[in-house]
Specification:
about 300 residues, 11 helices, alpha/beta, globular, eight-stranded parallel beta barrel, single chain
Amino acid sequence: MTVVPRSESASAPPAVDVGELVRIRAHRPEAIAEAAARRTRRPLLGDSGRLMIVAADHPARGALGVGDRRFAMANRADLLERLCLALSRPGVDGVLATADILDDLLLLGALDGKVVMGSMNRGGLQGASFELDDRFTGHRAEDIERLGFDAGKLLLRIDYGDPGSLTTLESTARAIDDMAARGLPVFVEPFLSRRTDDGRLKNDLSAEAVTKSIAIASGLGGTSAYTWLKLPVTENPDDMAEVMETSTLPAVLLGGEVGGSAEEQAGAYEKWRGALQLPTVRGLVVGRSLLYPADGDVAAAVDTAVGLL
């Protein structure tokens, strides 16, 4: 299967034939494993020593919203078109997603020569009472190895007042061990989190909280040899230099919620720009703010982010 361009414009997403994807899934499910086996691989880090990864693992948590658009990510064909466009841009190294999305991208031939990161724990559904008991319901280490993918990613939200966090901590440590035993990098995304008065989970981006989350995540598992950190920029970007002194593990910056305006998008770029100069920071893993930018121009948003590296 090939992706057919919708127009000659560099910023127009390529068209995805959903009917053909469904036909292959229904009649030849083994085609996914075959596509994974013939995929052209590359090292995690290229000559630049930097990483630019596009993230699309939000839907599996029921997190479909972007800004004020509650179901922006619910249209799978549209999401795939945006991903294919982003992956085609110069300087984009790869993608982070759950199995369903990566399977589609394999069938579309969009992952050759790209870094492929499997999302490992998606059980902490957005808004659920069990959100912090974040079970590993996505890729296992054995799946990432079997499919020839390049890395895994897991989310570690810790609320000192919620016992579910302890379950997630222990599961995270064992996942790190499983990945290290296979020589596979794992990107750990830690937060200190708390419930607001209306029950929503809020991540604490203060310098103190991010520092503590880095210290906790860095010490998990029997070895840190294959552990990377995936970290937010602190509320005050000027705090990042001191915060990043907490660990010698390589780190990438996450995008998070940027907002729905061009001004908020530009502000996010500036926050990333400063933090990317720090010695342990090796790149960006950004999703919704690049795939659904305020002005709708995916290619321009991706190119701007790449330029920060």
